[in-house]
Design goal:
- By secondary structure, the protein is mostly helical.
- It has 2 domains: 58 residues; 31 residues, no CATH class.
- The chain is 53% helix and 0% strand.
- Helix 2 runs antiparallel to helix 3.
- The longest helix has 26 residues.
Length: 89
């Protein structure tokens, strides 16, 4: 007599919600939901890694910040600063 296997089918088919493609839901919907689930997990893991690693390393200052810095360093006078600031809007 042949052993039927843990799930009663000799393990030839995916019959558990823990195994196989579309593990959470059957059919094509299962594939889509499973891919979305793992995509979300990977995205969140990457965002967490960026947050822990100081993910704002390539911050580029805005035009107004650059203008303020130039005024603070004395590269431009107050009149030039006010004119450029109004042009930036």
């Amino acid at each position: 007599m042949m052993h039927a296997g843990f799930f009663g089918n000799g393990g030839a088919h995916y019959s558990s919600w823990l195994c196989g493609p579309g593990a959470f839901f059957p059919g094509v919907l299962g594939w889509v939901i499973t891919l979305l689930f793992w995509g979300l997990i990977i995205y969140l893991a990457l965002r967490l890694f960026q947050a822990l690693a100081g993910g704002t390393c390539n911050h580029r200052p805005s035009s107004l910040e650059t203008l303020k810095d130039r005024y603070a360093r004395g590269e431009i006078n107050e009149e030039q600063y006010q004119r450029m600031k109004s042009e930036l809007g």
